[in-house]
Amino acid sequence: MSFLVRLVLGLIVVALAFVVVVRIVPGIQVHGGVTEYLIVAAVFGLVNGILGPVLKLVTLPISVLTLGLFMLVLNALLLALSAYLVPALTIDGFWSAFVGAILIGLVSWVLNTFLAGPIEKAVGR
Q1: If the chain, 125 residues long, is cut into consecutive pieces of 10 residues, what is the mean pLDDT of each piece?
Q2: Which range of residues forms the domain containing residue 74?
């Protein structure tokens, strides 16, 4: 699959994950339509892609001590940072961000699992 197709597919998958999370978690809202969901997904992807690895490396000792559970807290903080950067995304508190980050990860994983095969066949690889 080409890089551009993977990038667009990843953006759409994360946007769909936000749609699911907004419907399930009462403390997370995205104000607007499809464009805002895509912007939120893009910013969340950039925050996770740029700051995520750095913060995971810095907090590695804490993660080892907590047997990896601190990664869930770190993901919640990255989601809250995304909400700070994008006015269309509002999160009411830490626990909403915590549950939302877990659900975004799960929904993205499920969607990527089921969409990767059909997309690769459609693109012709």
Answers
A1: 81 93 95 94 95 94 93 95 95 95 94 77 65
A2: 3-123
Q: CA–CA separation, 104 vs 107, rounded Å?
A: 5
Instruction: Identify whether the C-beta of residue 27 lies closer than 8 Å to the C-beta of residue 114.
Output: no
| The one-letter amino acid at 21 | V
Structure tokens at 74: 């770190």
Residue with tokens 């095969």: 117
Provide CB contacts within 8 A for 78, sequence distance 6+: 44, 47, 48, 51, 52, 55, 101
3-state helix, strand, coil in the chain (%, to 5): 80, 5, 15
The phi-psi region of residue 124 (left if phi > 0; otherwise alpha if psi is between -120 and 50; otherwise beta) is left
pTM (two decimals) = 0.88
**β-strands 28-30, 89-91: how paired?**
antiparallel
Beta carbons within 8 Å of 74's beta carbon, 6+ residues apart:
52, 55, 56, 59, 63
